[in-house]
Specification:
- By secondary structure, the chain is α/β, with parallel strands linked by helices.
- The chain is built from 16 helices and twelve strands.
- The strands form three sheets. Strands 7-6-8-9-10-12 form a six-stranded mixed sheet, with helices on both faces. It has a four-stranded parallel sheet with strand order 2-1-3-4. It has a two-stranded parallel ribbon with strand order 5-11.
- It is globular, with a radius of gyration of 23 Å.
- The two termini are about 35 Å apart.
- About 45% of the residues are buried.
């Protein structure tokens, strides 16, 4: 296909005739949510009409390109599609990190940060024996597993990295690894799809979750994480923001800007806790009950004395037993749990700071802001600006 001349300037990006081809998977949340971000930018900044090609994305093929198409945003992970996109000569942005290098401007998840987030979460829950899965042909899988292993080992945990022989045999590989591993065990599956395999095999092997095996996925896909019982915890990615930033990058290309920057990395927003990790690896029943109480009552303020009374211990005794069982202070754990709740509200809602503080169990907005900055190394306002749409 002949290379099309791209005229720089606002005319291309703002004319009503300008069309942008989007190749996105609309079955899973990541594709739909990325499209929402692309559409928001296109409607408010670019004046684009989006041309969605779901089936072509699934089959990794390029649809026919009309004359009024000015750019492409694609979740492309096969070389043949990357090559076809490049041959059009159109400005294009890729949102997949399956391949290491594509030669296209990319806006992708920060896979190192995903691995770090997963390791921190499982170690925080008291799991010192960990497992992760890696598909060696998927670059994002390799990155996530390496960062997970590095972070976990630096915290004193042991890690087994299970190399999957193929996607077709992935569940068999996971089943073998789980059957051979001592428990308790924290599992970072690397994706929600692999987490389904792990949960299914835990059920088959009679392993209780999360007491014997805690399973954590990635993407927080609304269907996948709830299709199993127990429901699956997952590292949350702000796909709307990723889509918005991909559209913004395409817009800059359409304005004639050169793009020699590396990949733009979008960090995860945290972990959405569901049944597969809703607890910690502790043998002390009173401490386990205290943690369950904290999780159930995050939206309302309560004191440590209230918590101690709930588990029929003195506050001092509970604090000592909590520290011994988890290696962390009771107050520190409670505050971190409230901060995670606040992060979810900051990224998913437009609620005002006093409302978020109250809904996260903080007594006032001032204390919330101070605690958030201490634990997240940024202000609530800056966190929201970073993780929500531009």
């Amino acid at each position: 296909m002949q290379r099309k001349a791209i005229v720089p300037g606002p005319t291309i990006a703002t004319t009503n005739a300008a069309r942008v081809v989007t190749l996105m998977d609309c079955i899973h949340d990541y594709g739909r949510r990325a499209l929402e971000g692309i559409a928001r930018f296109g409607n408010t900044q670019g004046g684009w009409t989006l041309e969605l090609h779901h089936e072509d994305q699934i089959h990794q093929r390029l649809p026919p390109i009309a004359d009024n198409v000015v750019g492409i945003i694609a979740h492309a992970f096969r070389p043949k599609l990357i090559d076809a996109i490049r041959r059009t000569g159109l400005p294009a942005v890729n949102t997949s990190s399956v391949l290491h290098r594509t030669g296209l401007p990319t806006v992708i998840p920060d896979n190192d940060a995903i691995g770090v987030t997963a390791a921190d979460d499982l170690v925080r829950r008291g799991f010192h024996r960990l497992m992760t899965f890696v598909h060696p042909r998927w670059f994002h899988s390799v990155q996530r597993a390496a960062a997970f292993e590095r972070t976990a080992r630096s915290s004193g945990a042991s890690v087994v990295t299970v190399e999957l022989t193929s996607i077709q045999r992935a569940e068999d590989d996971i089943a073998t690894a789980l059957a051979d591993s001592p428990t308790p065990l924290g599992v970072f599956a690397g994706s929600d799809g692999m987490a389904v395999f792990a949960v299914r095999q835990c059920l088959h092997l009679g392993l209780s979750m999360p007491e014997q095996v805690a399973v954590l996925g990635v993407d927080n896909d609304s269907l996948t994480t709830r299709m199993m019982s127990p429901s699956i915890s997952s590292v949350e990615l702000p796909w709307e923001k990723l889509g918005y930033e991909a559209a913004a990058r395409l817009h800059r290309l359409l304005q004639g800007e050169t793009d020699d920057d590396g990949p733009q990395l979008i960090p995860p927003t945290g972990v959405v806790t569901r049944q597969t990790t809703d607890g910690v690896s502790v043998a002390d029943g009173a401490v386990a009950s205290a943690i369950a109480f904290i999780r159930q009552r995050l939206t309302v303020p309560f004191t440590l004395d209230d918590l101690a009374a709930e588990v029929a211990l003195s506050r001092r005794s509970l604090e000592l037993r909590f520290k011994k069982a988890t290696g962390r202070t009771l107050q520190g754990y409670l505050t971190e749990a409230r901060i995670e709740r606040a992060k979810q509200l900051l990224t998913e809602t437009d609620r005002a700071m006093p409302d978020i503080a109250e809904s996260s169990g903080f007594t006032n907005a001032s204390y919330f802001a101070t605690a958030f900055r201490k634990h997240a190394s940024t202000t609530p306002t800056a966190f929201r600006a970073r993780h929500r749409l531009g």
